[in-house]
Amino acid sequence: MPPKPRISLPTKPPPTIKARTAPPFSARPAPKPQASRATPTSRAPHTSWYNNANLRFQTKWTFRIIISGCTLIYIRDQWVYITPIKGASMAPTINPTVHETGQKDWLILRPILHRATNPDDIQRGDIVVFWKTNKPEEAGVKRVVALEGDTVYPQRGYALDPDVLATRRLAGLPDGLPDHDDDSILADREEGGKIVVPYGHVWVEGDNARNSLDSREMGPISKGLIESKAVWIWRGWGRFLQVGDARSEKEKRLGSRVVKGRSEVPAMFLE
Fold it and tell me: Is 42 a catalytic residue?
């Protein structure tokens, strides 16, 4: 009997170990993290002052009041403002019945900005508000009757003071004729009874010539003391009047006589 063949059992091959390799390089940049969208429930926490309703209310209204105040100050200094007028020195143009009824007029004023681009802002006949030279803390309201370079012949005031005329010779009769002799012994005295308005000044008087403290006592007023010019008169609701001259011809003759001249810049200012 022949021998049987050897039986061989199949064997599994040993497991192969795979080498780890790096992933292929990608040229695309890594995506940026996206900010999460704010939702009504994800708000930043408020500070302690914001949570205080009373403090938040006061802060809001304080800011509004400051802004409103700055705006009003700018309008008042640059554009227009209104002020009441007391006294009767400008009657009958302003406060014509203040003594009888006590009713005061209000003036709507435009501030005067002294700029080189507007040298002719003040004209004869304008009603201006200025700071008084004898009382610097008070403001006066008068009419401009003469500008720089004009000659004024007042009917009263310091120019006709007897103590002043004792060292001056009187000049400027109402007819405009000379009242002195150049060959007389008084010819070397300074002329009295007239004033030449100096450069940078104006001559102001009240419409009520018998009851007005103005340039006839204070002298010419510097333009730097003039604050504003009247543009309208307010006499109650709906009663606005343009600034004019309500005096009669007789009342106008009570004021000073003015001879228009030409202003010349002093030589010392040209050096």
Answer: no
